[in-house]
Amino acid sequence: MIEVIQTYWVYFLIGQFPDGPLGGLTLTIVIAAGGLLLAFPLGFALAIARMSPWPILSWPITGMVYVVRGTPLLMVLFWAYFFLPSITGQKISQFSTMLGALVLFNAAYLSEIFRAGIQALSTGQFEAARSLGLSYFAALRLVVMPQVMRNMLPSLVNQFVSTIKDTSLGYIIGLSEVSFIASQINNLVLTKPTEIYFALALAYFTLCFGLSRIAFWLERRLAQDESRSKMHRPSKPTLLEQP
Amino acid sequence: MIQFENVNKWYGEYHALVDITETIGKGEVVVVCGPSGSGKSTLIRTINRLEPIQSGTIVVDGKDAHSASLNINQFRAGIGFVFQQFNLFPHLTALENCTLAPKNIRGLNASAARELAIKLLDRVGLSEKADAYPAALSGGQQQRVAIARALAMQPPVLLFDEPTSALDPEMVGEVLMVMRDLASDGMTMVCVTHEMGFAREVADRVLFMDSGRILERATPDDFFNRPQHARAQQFLSDIRTPFR
Amino acid sequence: MAFDLNLLLVGTYHDWLIQGLRLSLGIAGITLVLALPLAMVVALFRLSPVAALRWLGVMFVESIRNVPLLAHMLFWYFGAPELLPDSLKRWLYAGNIEVLSATVALTLYTAAYMAEDIRSGIRGISSGQFEAGRSLGFSFLGTMRLIILPQALRVTIPPLVSQTLNLWKNTSIATIIGVGELMYQAAKVESSAFRSAEAFAFATICYLSVSLILTGLGLFYRHRFPVRSA
What we know:
- By secondary structure, chain A is mostly helical.
- Chain A is 78% helix and 0% strand.
- Chain B is an alpha/beta fold.
- In chain B, 39% of the residues lie in helices and 25% in strands.
- In chain B, strand 1 and strand 2 form a beta hairpin.
């Protein structure tokens, strides 16, 4: 097994790069990060549209979110990768297909996270901002969103973890991310499937577990800040009775 | 009815109860008071073993509360406990809260349990709220249902852990009224409370605690008019002048 | 090439797709039946007063949730059978090892998520409820059964329904190890008849309908059994 690791670890991490396209674990991270960050503006727009008072805007968007959440990501990949070329006559690269599908999915999920974050914030904050004379959008931008972003940080890190896991589906359309590379190595070595797929799982685990620890830590820090900001309120002394 | 003998309890390094020795007789109404953190809630929670103790014995109605061989569930069924936060079961109506234990532990049939529960809800003045869920009741009403729930097991002893501290001021009276009524019926009661008016009128004895010790045991008259211990004097002057 | 609805209503391709749908539903159903009790046990481990059991629970949940389902499937299909003795391996390969591996992977994956939902449902009930139950004389299990679980269930059912929806979508990943479920059959129709639009439309509608039914059930439950708090 040590021999296998020595031979293939660079391939596992970066694919054929720099002699060929970037691949492996690095591509997994790059495409996951891209798929999440590019989804931000779209997700935000969807959230605002869904909360808007105009049904002509909110209904179709709500419908779209339901459709995306009810369909496997793999299904979208199939449509984009096998069906689209048959009408456009142009093959889309695996990279663009995967990135596009991730952006679409993440936008739908992010819109839910944004919406929950905005709705959780008390209307008092918004009213206070408007009472100071800020416009609707200024109040949103200067008062509401900074707080929402902060509160959402743990959810966003968790969404990044899911996105990393989702990139593994690139395997099916032959995108050379880390799962695909692992199966390529398995095809070359042939005799060590257990070890190779265990190593693949371990790589994902290290990455995702590390990130979810960060999310957990952020969540705790936020909870502490919250309780500290409530400290000045008088509380009933009896609540402190028990040591 | 309840005997404490050299009871000690620690939370880690913190000595929460220090050598408590005390006897509470049958039919007696005892009020336990003292400043925050004095150990009075801990004391009452050791009686039905919600809190373990590290040394000493507590005997309730002839049974050693902290012996390993005790059937703890049967033991607790014979002691009513009323919580500061009511702890009504939110998924059950007021009536169902009162029938749950009689049905499942006493083995009462549904109609007998129902009859008993209605009688008790009537006693606390809430028979018309029998089918309401706790969320639809005020704090004072919830606490009265909680008392009825405890009474439904027909316990010889009732323990109250600050039953009025979580209530809005205007609801304290209705709960104290129910407690007063129980006391006049000869119920054995141990009440941790800050309600000094209740202590003065209803209690047979007052125990004053500080730093895990019982510093003073006296009749209400002696305690309020002639407190002996310096800490007790301080405590009484503090509660009489709340806006220092 | 016009959309040929007839292709979906009769004939070989229709049969393939229906076969796939049946297998997808079957795998999802069996996985649900296996994963729920497993999740319950793992959740109780996570809440246990014994530190060793809690650790076991954490290890199970974290090691499974932080690895993509696809990697689980690859491991259970390619990796795990290699660890078994030859006779057992031959027996497995004679049977439908693809479906078995996929079900094992899906069950573990789904159970890890459900365990966390059940755990947080139970933890959401205040300790006062537990103390009140014990003070009335109920045993640990009696308190769990009559007081804690009925309340926890109300809070837990909706997230469990969304996990079931995830499970339904996740069955599609079994395609990669050659399980003949809905996605696999859709791809098969695509490659043998070049009828991607029809095959994919069929699959999409199937996935969506079941998802919408599950979402509807979740909403209905929340409406019918609202969470009561004191």
